[in-house]
Amino acid sequence: MYLLKCIAQIGGLLGIAQLGTKITQVFNLHFPGSILGILFVFLLLEAKVISLEWVEIGANLLIAELLLFFIPSAVGVVQYKQLVITNGASFGFVIFLSTVTVMISTGLLAEFLNKIGKGR
């Protein structure tokens, strides 16, 4: 039962991501459709159209295995050894700066949302 529930939930999340991709293609939007799909899931959860239990098991499995999704891009970098040698420091700086930016903005957003949540 757990396996079927997990497969159904991941399928539903993938379907919503595909819907977001299709919408971005049809309307020629310039951002990833999967992001639009995540926004749809958030809005559906906030509007109580779907409950958290309907996506929780599948989402937790995807998050637990998130590292596996980065293996193809890491293997792809190996093909461009010369590019990494010549521009590696620049790449490292950009990766470091973007990581710090994401960490700071996530922390500030979490604090802001926590303050708003306490006001409810």
Explain briefly what this protein structure is.
78% of the residues lie in helices and 0% in strands. The protein has 120 residues and is mainly alpha-helical.
Fill in the keyword field for this structure.
120 residues; mainly alpha; 2 domains; 0% strand
Query: Rounded to an integer, what's the Rg over CA atoms?
Result: 19 Å
Shape verdict: extended
- Could you state the order of secondary-structure elements as H and E? HHHHH
- Major sheet attributes: none
Give the helix tally: 5
> What number of structural domains do the residues give?
2
Class derived from helix and strand content: mainly alpha
Instruction: Estimate the mean pLDDT confidence.
Output: 91
Report the strand count: 0
Amount of beta strand: under 5%
Instruction: Name the poorly predicted regions.
Output: none
Distance between the termini: 37 Å
Helix percentage? over 70%
Structural account:
The protein has 120 residues and is mainly α. It has 2 domains: 64 residues, no CATH class; 47 residues. Helix 1 crosses helix 2. The longest helix has 38 residues. It is extended, with a radius of gyration of 19 Å. It starts with a helix and ends with a helix.
Outline the secondary-structure elements.
Layout lengths: L1 H25 L6 H14 L9 H9 L6 H8 L2 H38 L2
Helix pairs in contact: 1-2, 1-3
